[in-house]
Design a protein that fits this description.
flat, 2 helices, mainly alpha
Length: about 45
């Protein structure tokens, strides 16, 4: 359950990153993207 919640959170973050990608929040989003990549490696590798 906990893992599923984290995955769901990651997906929500990813949607937010994609949505804000072309906005002024680029640096903010890219840091979240790094976090997301680390989490996905943890769960899918």
């Amino acid at each position: 359950m906990c893992r599923n919640l984290e995955l769901f959170f990651c997906l929500l973050l990813w949607q937010k990153i994609k949505h804000n990608f072309h906005k002024r929040e680029f640096m903010y989003s890219s840091s979240y993207k790094l976090l997301l990549e680390n989490l996905t490696k943890k769960y899918w590798m």
